[in-house]
């Protein structure tokens, strides 16, 4: 597999930090995140034709397993900040060691945590109290997904390294391998094709776990290729207590921000699950469709964070700020395209997941609301990426956690339950939350606190 380790050179574009540079670095990351979303959409479509409860169980179980693991994803993503700043400072030989310090810090912990989740997840479901039918399907699905949990840490750490040096193509190649493995196994294990057993929704979880291991192995091979190993010193090194402490000082607030925000979103989904299996199935379909825009924004935020970090490392703060605003412009443009699709072809998009007439009726107004939601959400996601690239992670952690628990959940409960707005009311509350969050991220970046930060 060819590995591209050269970052996008500022000499090849007219304006450092301009839209062209952001787009050049972002498009492989956007393609990767969209392809990963497509993988989840395909999984949901495969399972959705088993029935409404099956689709709801995959959505509900998936949200909770991701909520319980996303702290590791967030913490591991801090590798990109350190690598990009080292790259910008021309300290290429100092990039590779951050990979190993992150593995030492996070690897053993996720093994123990995944085992604990597998043991206690049935108890958690009893407390959350969705339907008994949904619980019966969600438990084996989640346990199958957890078989891939140990691969999550190397997956995000290796990915963050490559993005930090400006190589967004290698993770894309790994994702294409992951998707191919997942689609074949999901179809085979859900329906018993290709000589595989019929595992139903459990098969979908197992397919995702196996595919994640493939992704990590592909990136490990790329990481240890002679050219990469020589230039960036990616060969294994001994643990360094001081480096691990620095990494965690930036990474733990990101992980905490992810997990507490996702926990509040999981509670949002639990509230919808209690409205019935039809409601949670509609919620799952909308989430998957929103991911088409969400993951574009994530891909652009990855590029924004890498460029902001690189220019902060090079002490070119004007280019760092220009990268941030260029990414916002690019993200809004792509989100507008998705909004048009949501408004003009709702039945076609919802029909990917189901032919149930009641589910289609419930989903149409949600998709119209989603058109505005994903536009606002994209702004916040990209702005947050710029802050992470500069190493500004602690204030965002506190601010987002506060909004998630003091605004999101009360507003959702008011509109969905107290005012009897149902699923549509819940998503109106979610729209209020992401609007406030995006405005806060933009104000934080504009305030310029990141300019004086050192990590």
Q: Would you mind describing this structure in some detail?
A:
This protein has 455 residues and is mostly helical. The chain has one domain. Helices cover 80% and strands 0% of the residues. It has 16 helices and no strands. Helix 15 packs antiparallel against helix 16. The chain is globular. The two termini are 34 Å apart. The N terminus is likely disordered.
What's the arrangement of secondary structure elements?
Layout: H1 19-48, H2 52-76, H3 78-88, H4 97-128, H5 132-146, H6 152-164, H7 169-191, H8 201-223, H9 226-232, H10 241-273, H11 277-313, H12 317-344, H13 346-350, H14 357-389, H15 394-418, H16 422-447
List the main descriptive attributes of the protein structure presented here.
globular; 455 residues; mainly alpha; disordered N terminus
Give the end-to-end Cα distance, rounded to a whole number of Å.
34 Å
Number of strands: 0
* Number of helices in the DSSP assignment: 16
Q: Radius of gyration from the CA trace?
A: 21 Å
Helix-strand string? HHHHHHHHHHHHHHHH
What ranges have pLDDT less than 50 throughout 5 or more consecutive residues? Answer: 1-13
**Integer tally of domains:** 1
- How can the largest sheet be summarized? none
Helix content: over 70%
Strand content: under 5%
Average of pLDDT? 86
Shape estimate: globular
- Report the structural category: mainly alpha
Describe the structure concisely for a colleague.
The protein has 455 residues and is mostly helical.
């Amino acid at each position: 597999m060819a590995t591209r380790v050269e970052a996008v050179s500022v000499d090849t574009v007219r304006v450092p930090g301009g839209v062209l540079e952001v787009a050049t670095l972002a498009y492989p990351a956007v393609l990767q995140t969209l392809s990963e979303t497509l993988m989840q959409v395909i999984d949901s479509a495969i399972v959705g034709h088993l029935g409404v409860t099956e689709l709801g169980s995959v959505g509900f179980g998936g949200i909770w397993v991701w909520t319980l693991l996303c702290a590791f994803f967030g913490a591991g993503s801090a590798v990109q900040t350190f690598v990009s700043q080292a790259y910008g400072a021309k300290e290429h030989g100092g990039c590779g060691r951050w990979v190993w310090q992150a593995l030492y810090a996070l690897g053993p912990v996720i093994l123990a945590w995944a085992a604990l989740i597998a043991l206690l997840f049935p108890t958690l479901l009893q407390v959350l109290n969705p339907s008994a039918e949904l619980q019966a399907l969600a438990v084996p699905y989640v346990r199958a997904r957890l078989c891939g949990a140990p691969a999550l840490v190397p997956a995000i750490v290796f990915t963050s390294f490559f993005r930090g040096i400006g190589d967004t193509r290698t993770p894309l190649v790994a994702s294409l391998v992951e998707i191919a493995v997942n689609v074949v196994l999901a179809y085979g294990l859900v329906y018993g094709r290709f000589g595989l057993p019929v595992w139903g929704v459990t098969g979908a979880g197992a397919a995702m776990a196996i595919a994640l291991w493939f992704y990590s192995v592909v990136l490990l091979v790329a990481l240890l290729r002679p050219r990469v190993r020589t230039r960036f010193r990616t060969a294994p090194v001994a643990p360094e207590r001081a480096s691990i402490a620095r990494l965690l000082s930036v990474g733990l607030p990101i992980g905490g921000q992810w997990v507490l925000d996702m926990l509040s979103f999981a509670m949002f989904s639990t509230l919808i699950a209690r409205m019935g299996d039809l409601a949670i199935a509609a919620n799952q379909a909308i989430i998957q469709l929103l991911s088409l825009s969400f993951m574009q924004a994530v891909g652009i935020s990855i590029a924004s964070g890498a460029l902001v970090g690189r220019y902060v490392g090079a002490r070119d703060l004007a280019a760092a700020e220009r990268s941030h605003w260029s990414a916002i412009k690019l993200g809004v443009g792509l989100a507008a395209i998705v909004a048009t699709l949501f408004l003009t072809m709702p039945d076609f998009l919802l029909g990917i997941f189901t032919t149930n007439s009641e589910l289609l009726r419930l989903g149409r107004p949600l998709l119209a609301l989603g058109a505005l939601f994903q536009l606002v959400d994209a702004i916040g996601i990209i702005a947050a990426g710029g802050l992470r690239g500069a190493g500004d992670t602690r204030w965002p952690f506190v601010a987002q956690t506060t909004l998630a628990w003091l605004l999101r959940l009360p507003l959702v409960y008011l509109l969905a339950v107290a005012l009897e707005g149902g699923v549509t009311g819940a998503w109106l509350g979610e729209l209020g939350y992401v609007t406030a969050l995006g405005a806060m991220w933009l104000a934080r970046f504009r305030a310029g606190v990141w300019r004086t930060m050192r990590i």
